[in-house]
Design goal:
The protein is built from 3 helices and 4 strands; from the N terminus they run βαββαβα. It is an alpha/beta fold. Strand 3, helix 2 and strand 4 form a beta-alpha-beta unit. The two termini are 14 Å apart.
Length: 96
């Protein structure tokens, strides 16, 4: 699974936990105002977009949701907490 993470200055153990769940490719963009939303692209082959809501600009969140929808890539909006994120990931797996 290839995951694009947007937001959070540092992922900490979240990156390790995602790799343990089978993520072979992890791309991280910090998500604050330093991202140009016109140039924001989802890498080819991305299976999931994860947006850390505590650390992301609202305009970036809207832009990434729209882009992901056009590419039929699922998006998860989550706090930067592994407990909260794992619950969201479980909900997505049950829907699949």
């Amino acid at each position: 699974m290839s995951i694009l993470v947007i937001g959070a200055d540092h992922l900490g153990d979240i990156a390790v936990n995602l790799k343990n769940l089978g993520c072979h490719s992890l791309t991280h963009l910090k998500g604050r105002k330093n991202i140009n939303k016109r140039k924001l692209k989802i890498p080819e082959g991305t299976d999931l977009v994860l947006v850390m809501t505590d650390y992301v600009d609202h305009n970036i969140a809207r832009c990434i949701r729209s882009t992901a929808k056009n590419l039929s890539v699922p998006v998860i909006f989550s706090k930067r907490s592994w407990t909260y994120l794992s619950q969201k990931l479980n909900m997505v797996e049950k829907l699949s």
